[in-house]
Amino acid sequence: MPTISLTTDFGTRNGFAGVMKGVIYKISPNAKIVDISHTIAPQDIREGAFALWRAYSFFPKGTVHLYVVDPGVGTKRRPLAARIGDHYFVGPDNGLLTPILEDAEHKFEKIEFFELSNPKYFLPKVSRTFHGRDIFSPIAAHLANGISLNEFGPSFFDPVRMKMTHPEKTSNGFTAHVTLIDIFGNISTDLSASALQGQTDVLFRLRGAEVNGLVETYGHRSAGDLVAVVDSEEFVEIAVVNGNAAQRLSAEVGDVVDVVFSVK
């Protein structure tokens, strides 16, 4: 039974995600559809990118990941289908796949991109504003049915990439960056736990606030305390125990986090 995941900014109020599921089931009635998220902030490609990146590798090999966060719908932006490692992706070529692509390149995994240009696999009528229904859903369903990627259109090698930050080494630590703020107000950074090389006596500075050292979990401190933890993706996160760190610090994606190792 093929699996198709859905990641969109459509919400659940207006039925857009339901329409896409109906299109998929008409073409691939045996598909299993799994929702990753339909509450990505409207047009927020970065948030969609990290939501899909966080989830995709936990799905079975061969899963088709359909994503529609598409502020460029109806313009000249390319519609694409891709194979990255053991997974398939369908959606707009707008940089949303960048974190997944970077990881795959680091692991030397197989990567293929194809432009969706064969109308045989679209719905008969393609609107200018709902490619999720008319192009991406049918392509995902046909892909789940076993149609080869090269049937959908020509290959290409220059996908759009979102600008990604990476920690910069300093004389006494790192300059890191805020990459994501989750629904709880926890502040994720681009500093991996492995970059600390076991160092625990570390000072983190963000927006004038300082956090000394890492704690194992939120529960190791009292409610209201500002803490640094290693998140579920093994990156350093700044949080407030039972509170909202982003609100307290007025933090935003892209903010600089100074990471200072103690001098011994």
Question: Which helices and strands occur, and which strands form pairs?
Answer:
Blueprint: E1 3-8, H1 16-27, E2 32-37, H2 45-56, E3 64-68, E4 79-84, E5 87-92, H3 98-106, E6 111-115, H4 131-144, E7 155-156, E8 168-170, E9 173-181, E10 187-192, E11 202-206, E12 209-212, E13 226-230, E14 235-240, H5 245-249, E15 256-261
Parallel strand pairs: 1-2, 1-3, 3-5
Antiparallel strand pairs: 4-5, 4-6, 6-7, 8-9, 9-10, 9-15, 10-14, 11-12, 11-15, 13-14
Features:
Rossmann fold, seven-stranded mixed β-sheet, alpha+beta, eight-stranded antiparallel β-sheet, single chain
CATH topology label of the largest domain = Rossmann fold
Task: State the separation between the terminal residues, measured CA to CA.
Answer: 58 Å
Q: Using the alpha-carbon principal axes, give the shape.
A: elongated
Helicity range: 10-25%
Concise synopsis of the structure shown:
By secondary structure, this protein is of the alpha+beta class.
